[in-house]
């Protein structure tokens, strides 16, 4: 590759390293046992010390290297000096070596918007913490753990936890980074925890093995803790062979690209732009699609409403089928943006 890497490739390379740093922060806070939980709007909308520190790390690290980008994070935090040990200056060399898609090669910092969810799946993160004794938490966060132990029910909740950094241009999600801080916990003592995946439409997606649900099966993944009649009716209308209820938007998109689910169906407001920007970019990079329940795409401009008020409908394949199955009652209840 001749010359300096394009701005967007340098930003993605930084976001990769920053997401890994944030994942390490998420593990460290769980290990400490001091989560510092605050209710934002209720018991299903929580913030922890990990949310706060991870967002500080992500936003400060990226803005220091790219001072002209717009960064929008989930957590409303006071404007204060960020500790130097939260700053990550690294960049993923393998990303810098890739050729930027031509349509993005000339983009400037000012044209890019970064959407940050520092800890997607906070509810599951806090539940896992409550379900684990501190010595066990120390094992998980530092060495991995064995799911045959009695606390394995709490352990699976950690699958739901991700760090999400999405990059948008012209209102479209054009790159995404997802870190799973506790990936590999099932491998036992000595396992290296965490993985980071990333993707860019026109370039591809990396850090995972793309798999699909067999064509004769429809498996729907949906919310674990924010369900209602509208959500349930819409899931039923898809005529699924199986329904999986888990937490975290990032986790649900990972299920789609790893062949554990066919579609992500959430017929309700609740998801925000920082929940869907990074996952949408990765899904799009492998040929999938994410829209609202009407089949309309979301925009990720800096000035848009944060709420995805018309729900989320995503699929790796056959997105049109799932859109066609959405009941009229859902379409009437959820106004498209």
TrEMBL record:
- Please give the Gene Ontology molecular function terms for this protein: 3'(2'),5'-bisphosphate nucleotidase activity; inositol-1,4-bisphosphate 1-phosphatase activity; metal ion binding
- For this UniProt record, give its keywords in alphabetical order, as a comma-separated list: Acetylation, Hydrolase, Lithium, Magnesium, Metal-binding, Phosphoprotein
Query: Which N-terminal stretch is annotated as signal sequence?
Result: none
Which residues make up the binding site for Mg(2+)? 74, 117, 119-120, 275
Q: What is its EC number?
A: 3.1.3.57, 3.1.3.7
Which cofactor is recorded for it?
Answer: Mg(2+)
Enzyme class, top EC level, equals hydrolase
* GO annotation terms (biological process): phosphatidylinositol phosphate biosynthetic process
Reaction(s) catalysed (UniProt annotation)? adenosine 2',5'-bisphosphate + H2O = AMP + phosphate; 1D-myo-inositol 1,3,4-trisphosphate + H2O = 1D-myo-inositol 3,4-bisphosphate + phosphate; adenosine 3',5'-bisphosphate + H2O = AMP + phosphate; 3'-phosphoadenylyl sulfate + H2O = adenosine 5'-phosphosulfate + phosphate
Please state which protein family the record places this protein in.
Belongs to the inositol monophosphatase superfamily.
Which named protein is this?
A: 3'(2'),5'-bisphosphate nucleotidase 1
Query: What species is given as this protein's source?
Result: Acanthochromis polyacanthus (spiny chromis)
């Amino acid at each position: 590759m001749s010359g300096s890497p394009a701005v967007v490739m340098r930003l993605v390379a930084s976001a990769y390293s920053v997401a890994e740093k944030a994942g390490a922060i998420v593990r460290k806070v769980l290990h400490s046992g001091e989560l510092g939980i605050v209710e934002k709007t209720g018991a299903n909308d929580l913030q922890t010390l990990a949310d706060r520190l991870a967002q500080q790390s992500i936003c400060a690290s990226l803005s220091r290297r790219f001072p002209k980008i717009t960064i929008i994070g989930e957590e409303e935090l006071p404007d204060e000096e960020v500790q130097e040990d939260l700053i990550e200056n690294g960049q993923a060399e393998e990303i810098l070596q890739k050729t930027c898609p031509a349509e993005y090669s000339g983009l400037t910092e000012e044209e890019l918007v970064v959407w940050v969810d520092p800890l997607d799946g906070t509810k599951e993160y806090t539940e896992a913490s409550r379900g684990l004794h501190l010595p066990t938490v120390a094992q998980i966060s530092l060495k991995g753990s064995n799911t045959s132990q009695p606390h394995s029910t709490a352990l699976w909740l950690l699958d739901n936890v991700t760090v999400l950094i999405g990059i948008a241009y012209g209102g479209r999600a054009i790159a995404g980074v997802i870190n799973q801080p506790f990936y590999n916990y099932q491998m036992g003592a000595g396992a290296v925890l965490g993985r980071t995946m990333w993707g860019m439409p026109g370039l591809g997606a990396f850090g995972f093995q793309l798999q699909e649900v067999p064509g004769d099966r429809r498996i729907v993944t949906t919310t674990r803790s924010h369900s209602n009649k509208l959500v349930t009716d819409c899931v039923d209308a898809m005529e699924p062979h199986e329904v999986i209820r888990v937490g975290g938007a990032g986790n649900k998109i990972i299920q789609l690209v790893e062949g554990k689910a066919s579609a992500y169906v959430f017929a309700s407001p609740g998801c925000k732009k920082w929940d869907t920007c990074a996952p949408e970019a990765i899904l799009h990079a492998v040929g999938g699609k994410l829209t609202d329940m009407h089949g309309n795409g979301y925009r990720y401009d800096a000035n848009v409403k944060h709420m995805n008020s018309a729900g989320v409908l995503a699929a790796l394949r056959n997105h049109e089928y799932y859109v066609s199955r959405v009941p009229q009652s859902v379409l009437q209840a959820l106004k498209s943006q």
